[in-house]
Amino acid sequence: MTHEQSDQERVESRAHLLPEEASVGSDDPVAQADTILDESDVREEDRNAAPDTFLERRTSDQTVTPSEPPD
What we know:
mainly alpha
């Protein structure tokens, strides 16, 4: 199986509308699926690619204010 074939299979699989999508319909489910998967691939490769996305990496002691000072 070539990479191109696997991409086509992904698009065909994703072209089946989710219930939320089916309720509003789609003029071209295949094109919609292709766009969704392309954007997903970009976000997967570059975690900062999603608009308005900021991922914080903190430990639990950085997120909670201690109720009493440490010993």
